[in-house]
């Protein structure tokens, strides 16, 4: 049965507004067929006069292309429940309801549109939609993966809908919608279309479901957005590092690296870039953005830029993402393997850290509970509870290069930075990208004497935890660094001492980690620093760098301003992570 004209649509300031065709009956057999297959929310069987227009925001439009009979294929997503996005595809007729004058109104230059504010849009353009029902099939939901925070039926890709060369007014409307769909809301920043992506899947990351999460929550989004995707499953530890280090012309070949993993694969990719032998390491770090499809138990990168660990939200953010500079941290440590060889002077080993360094109770809670990995994030919560309440001490000497120690100064720093980057966003991005501070340590390494202006932390013998980092969230329910900013040239440092906290206070602190209010507790030292050194006084314990286990030996960390680059949703690209309430 041929499905006929059912709905009109307008191109409005914010997207495509779709509404029942005047005089049409949504209870007609054709309408029922359409609503049955296309599943647009406005298709419920009620009188057309009662149905409100539906808006597909430009941000939700994945791709638009020509089909036969002057039809236009629109691939888009809808937020079907909080932070869960479902892809759809429909064939629209933008022309049959237009009179001659309306068609004329399409004849503006779409290239101009990229640089115009939304208010400069031409008059709404009426369009008419028809459906291609047979190509839309419901697939598995994410629930079947055992994930509780998502539910997303997927419709099959429109691979059978052959895109045709667009002509005349059809080409103009396609170009117009694409120009708006692939421009950031500020009206000026272009978003790369049909991104060339290297997708790295760690089948063993986190709870081990990365392959199915990618298949069910991301693959089809990328297909519908017509991205050019190369997928590689990692087969061994450091495989991602080797790929980032050794893939020829990686900088030219890809617009982004998608890590379907926990936080270990982004860590490897960054260190792989740094180790490149073709002289492109720094360029890759600064300008080849990485992102995370959350498949681990922590997923700090995805949560800090998307505000949730939703895989479909992350998938949309990959397609609509823009590059944002981020600071990285350089860690130096004596190379144990070389040091152990006789007659050999200690050799320093440098590691890039993008997320955090953790020493003391939380490192034990994370790395000391590895056998409980099957529990998912709960193992971390239980571990933190156990190690904190036991008031264990981790004697060490800590030396710090402070930027801000006082809470008011940190707040001032945060507000100034956000305001400044909001007002001068383009200048901010240009300055960050043009930074040439290099990737070498400027404070020396852990093998050098401690710099003179670094201060030693008092009462190191009672230290219970030291946590330093660059992302607000270290997991979806732990906001460790509420004052963290992507590229403010500082590391957020969080220190507690066992003798300063009662068991009740420790418990209170653990509970307040969820919303970041622990930063206000008097017994917590929260500061912004440019570098620090930690020298353990005992051998036993764990050191976690970006969630990976490192030798429990002295180490030094310093900030590398804007040395890295993330693929983030356009609204996050303004020099600030998701809202933390700080
Ligand atoms: N095929 C593989 N077999 C074993 N280990 C692998 C494989 N591929 C990658 N790895 C290693 O798995 C480690 C963990 O990676 P990933 O980031 O995916 O998860 P995770 O760190 O376990 O995440 P989370 O801690 O958030 O649960 C990395 O250090 C990586 O080297």
Task: Explain what you see.
- The chain is an alpha+beta fold.
- It has 3 domains: 175 residues, no CATH class; 125 residues, Rossmann fold; 234 residues, Tumour Suppressor Smad4 (Sandwich).
- The protein is 26% helix and 27% strand.
- The chain is built from 18 helices and 24 strands.
- The strands form 4 sheets. Strands 12, 13, 14, 15, 16, 17, 20, 21, 22, 23 and 24 form an 11-stranded antiparallel beta sheet that branches. It has a 7-stranded antiparallel beta sheet with strand order 3-2-1-7-6-5-4.
- β4 and β5 form a beta hairpin.
- The longest helix is centred in the last third of the chain and has 17 residues.
- It is elongated.
- It starts with 6 loop residues before the first strand and ends in a 14-residue tail after the last strand.
- The N terminus is likely disordered.
Jot down its keywords.
binds adenosine-5'-triphosphate, Tumour Suppressor Smad4, 582 residues, disordered N terminus, 3 domains, eleven-stranded antiparallel sheet, alpha+beta
Number of domains: 3
- Structural class call reads alpha+beta
The CATH architecture of the largest domain can be named as Sandwich
Unreliable segments of 5+ consecutive residues: 1-6, 23-49, 98-161
CATH topology description of the largest domain: Tumour Suppressor Smad4
Outline the biggest β-sheet: 11 strands, antiparallel
Shape field: elongated
Mean pLDDT: 80
Query: Please, how many helices?
Result: 18
Beta-strand content = 25-35%
What is the name of the CATH class of the largest domain?
Mainly Beta
Report how far apart the termini are. Answer: 58 Å
Number of strands: 24
